[in-house]
Amino acid sequence: MNREKVLTLLGFASKSANIISGQDNTLKSLGKKPIYLVFCAADMAAGSKQKIVKKCQHLSIPLIHNFTIAELSKATGKANRTVIAIKDKQFANKMLELLENVD
Fold first, then answer.
1. Cα–chain-centroid distance for residue 72?
2. What is the β-pairing status of strands 37-40 and 83-86?
3. Which residues pair with 85 in a beta bridge?
4. At 64, which CATH number?
5. What secondary structure letter does DSSP report for 30?
């Protein structure tokens, strides 16, 4: 149930322009813009995922990787999204809270 709530919040964040989507856009923005949470698709290519993981670890940004490309794409309304960064602190905090209390 909480997974669905997180995906719904991700959709709201997308509609309110509080996300950065796509691997290249996210990598460019990490460290330059305030980013509070990053979603990395569980089924994305390992080499691409490693770049995001290293950058997030270096900047101490929480990284969530238990959603698929299909789930992330459907939630944001954008096709084939493997990486999504959350720019709003309140959205990020609520998503993290929901994921800590997984059913």
1. 8
2. antiparallel
3. 20, 38
4. 3.30.1330.30
5. B
Percent of the chain with pLDDT over 70: 97
Give the amino acid at 59.
Answer: L
Number of Cα atoms under 13 Å in the Cβ half of residue 66:
10
Residue-range definition of the domain harbouring residue 72: 2-100
- d(C-alpha 37, C-alpha 19), whole Å: 10
Q: Residue 30: left (phi > 0), alpha (psi -120 to 50), or beta?
A: beta
Angle between helices 2-15 and 89-100 (to 10 degrees): 170
| pTM to 2 decimal places | 0.91
DSSP 40-54: E-TTS-HHHHHHHHH
The 10s digit of each residue's pLDDT in 75-98 is 999 898 999 999 999 999 999 999
